[in-house]
């Protein structure tokens, strides 16, 4: 079969007619399939159902004797801090365990820097127009936070080993109004790439023009290796906190992690990790902001997972469920699209997404075609600041939630939409 | 026995010597007693231990079919909204159930008004020096939020039926930089007074100079009547939300309530209630700020309490535990201090505190004497903005946490300290 780019007008017209018929047939089936967000499936959630019952009615004290039912304890119970610390390979003093949403912790952190400055420095909003670097495609909810606080977003190209560090270094060292950068260092959302050791080292050794520049290191998929099988070793990225310390930038990184895709997406525990000094500073604010996190829920997590090893064992069970879904996506895309020369996609070793690049100018059309045929996708452009993909080509595929059979159906429709939109594009250029 | 004010120097000197001996004897016992904060006792927490075990491993769906384990649902599960709605006598559309801390919800609300303005109006911080009215004595953590956001606090006198409304009306209607007022309308912290119907009506009918003025109505003790016995009726205050609507101020009140002193202080559920329109507005922000509240914890509360009536039954059991403690405080103070003419105190019908007024200039000394003898009290002045009690006389007594026997010991020491400080004061004036 010819690649689409090499087809004549007649060939393209015939192809388009054929694809239109296929598409109409799909549409007439009246499916309702959802691949919009990185949501765990029922099977995955069921892995954790014992969390619902793992406390007995006299089991409410943490190791240090704290009554988890009562007030007190701004930074989490010691056992939960230790689990996060072991997983992230830092010390418990560098961890504050919060509520169920790492997004809320990130939002808070940006909010307080706007109003009060970093570590009680000059509030960002008093300094002029704040800017963040946004490696793109990236996580739409990071960009939404910037948007909410009227922070200018500068897109940074994503390479296979992380953001374009030449550009990051150049901008960060020259513009004091650049106050932050959003990073998902392991199984990046949506590309699934893992930052190389070299990239992480260059991050730690940044020389920011702004002393209140911060790296927002959203390690959302830190333990989410699809390759995990008994005895296998998760992919490891260098420790940004210790590297920053070595580089003389001890307070630069703010690391976020969460059990939202480990235990229950809506009822998990999340944390922020940073230098001990930053943590002390954050705790001062928390003493005004809240009565403290839900320690009982932390205790549930501790009882269920026991320790970091327990978490990694559990992630293996997630991998068993997720691996066939990612495999199905990659195999279907390859079977349907390899020959056409109309798309590229990532084949991640973990995380929650596959990033799909269509022909330039086709993403919105593909998402619209899918929607019309009953397949809901993340809006085209959502992976770019302000929802603006300059090439209109990136689509985030979220294969985790639907059962395998439904995912197969959705992918069939998706591939048909990709082909149809691509044929339309080439035809329009003739 | 003579009142202290009528004593001669010789009598006061003898009294002081006697009290000093008593005080030294107390001190030598080396007690460690804590009455600093409004913390529930172990007995109270144990009333709820079934919350730890009330879900089974297949019980995770809310009435509307939502899987509480997964993402989704910014305003809480319907059953939990209904319980709050029934308790507060408003509609579920006027409720957003959040996490475990109503303080965090209040903090957030002030923070967003500073940066984004009320309902996306002009941000408070861009309008100049924001001011809040602070009925005093009041809740120190309200004042800490103002302090954190550099909001000027204007103390308002507290009468037996609520804040001095003449002053409130005068200031609110004349100064557009007054953007808020902190209220604890039922069993006010620390005085325990209940706002009268007339006061609540005057609140609803305020004519603020600032269109972005908000009433922060912290109904923290809405269900916390000490008088509750089977068949008795809780004290009722008028519904500020419906009264404001009737008065043409539908968006003025922000009501906060929490189960922190109903179920587990650190692992409960809290809510904000306001007009439907305000709630829609808040949800828009929450869609950026968080993945949503912990719905599983809400489901636990629903399973345990069942409905609003279940909550009120439960509060009766709290009252059985708390009533003897409040009685002991009031009786001890009366027995020890009535004859001396050196103090006044409140006798609340609910809430968590007794407010104690010593002679002017004596509160700090009393708290210091108590601390030295092993009784920790809330710092003197904490009940006033910026920790500054202009008369240095108010002390907040928090009798809920210690067991009855310890409370008795603490009160003995407290009364001794009050008498000693008062004798010292009168002597110094001779």
Oligomer: homodimer
- CATH homology-level superfamily of the largest domain in chain A: Type I PLP-dependent aspartate aminotransferase-like (Major domain)
- What is the topology, as strand order, of the major beta sheet of chain A? 2-9-8-7-6-3-4-5
CATH architecture of the largest domain in chain A: 3-Layer(aba) Sandwich
Q: Largest sheet of chain A at a glance?
A: 8 strands, mixed
Given as residue ranges, the uncertain stretches of chain A (5+ residues, pLDDT < 50) are none
Rg over C-alpha atoms of chain A, rounded to the nearest angstrom: 23 Å
* CATH class annotation of the largest domain in chain A: Alpha Beta
Q: Using DSSP, what is the number of strands of chain A?
A: 13
Spatial separation of the terminal alpha carbons of chain A:
20 Å
**Class of secondary structure makeup of chain A:** alpha/beta
> What is the number of domains of chain A?
2
Strand-residue fraction of chain A?
5-15%
Name the biggest interface: A-B, 57 and 57 residues
Question: What labels describe this entry?
Answer:
alpha/beta; Aspartate Aminotransferase, domain 1; Aspartate Aminotransferase, domain 2; eight-stranded mixed beta sheet; 13 strands
């Amino acid at each position: 079969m010819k690649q689409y780019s090499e087809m004549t007008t007649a060939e393209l017209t015939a192809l388009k007619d054929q694809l239109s018929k296929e598409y109409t047939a799909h549409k007439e089936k009246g499916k309702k399939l959802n691949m919009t967000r990185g949501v765990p499936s029922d099977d995955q959630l069921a892995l954790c159902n014992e969390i619902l019952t793992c406390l007995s009615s006299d089991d409410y004290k943490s190791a240090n004797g704290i009554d988890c039912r009562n007030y007190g304890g701004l930074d989490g119970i010691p056992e939960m801090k230790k689990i996060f610390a072991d997983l992230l390979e830092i010390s418990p003093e560098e961890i504050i365990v919060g509520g169920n949403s790492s997004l809320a912790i990130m939002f808070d952190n940006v909010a307080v820097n706007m109003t009060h400055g970093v570590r009680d420095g000059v509030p960002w909003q008093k300094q002029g127009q704040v800017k963040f670097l946004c490696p793109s495609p990236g996580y739409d909810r990071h960009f939404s936070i910037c948007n909410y606080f009227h922070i200018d977003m500068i897109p940074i190209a994503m390479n296979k080993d992380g953001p374009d560090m030449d550009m990051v270094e150049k901008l960060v060292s020259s513009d004091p109004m650049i106050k932050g950068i959003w990073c998902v260092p392991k199984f990046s959302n949506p590309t699934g790439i893992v930052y190389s050791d070299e990239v992480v080292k260059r991050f730690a050794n940044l020389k920011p023009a702004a002393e209140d520049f911060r790296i927002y290191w959203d390690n959302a998929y830190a333990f989410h290796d699809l390759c995990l099988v008994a005895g296998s070793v998760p992919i490891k990225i260098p420790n940004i906190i210790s590297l920053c310390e070595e580089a003389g930038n001890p307070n630069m990184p703010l690391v976020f992690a969460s059990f939202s895709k480990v235990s229950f997406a809506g009822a998990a525990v999340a944390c922020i990790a940073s230098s001990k000094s930053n943590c002390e500073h954050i705790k001062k604010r928390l003493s005004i902001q809240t009565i403290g996190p839900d320690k009982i829920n932390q205790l549930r997590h501790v009882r269920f997972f026991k320790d970091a090893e327990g978490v990694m064992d559990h992630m293996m069970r997630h991998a068993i469920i997720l691996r066939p879904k990612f495999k199905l996506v990659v195999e279907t895309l390859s079977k349907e699209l390899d020959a056409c020369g109309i798309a590229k996609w990532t084949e991640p070793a973990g995380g929650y997404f596959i990033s799909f690049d269509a022909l330039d100018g086709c993403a919105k059309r593909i998402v619209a075609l899918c929607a019309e045929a009953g397949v809901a996708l993340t809006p085209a452009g959502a992976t770019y600041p302000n929802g603006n993909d300059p090439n209109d080509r990136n689509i985030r595929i979220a294969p985790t939630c639907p059962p395998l059979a439904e995912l197969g159906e959705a992918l069939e429709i998706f591939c048909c939409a990709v082909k149809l939109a691509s044929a339309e594009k080439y035809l329009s250029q003739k």
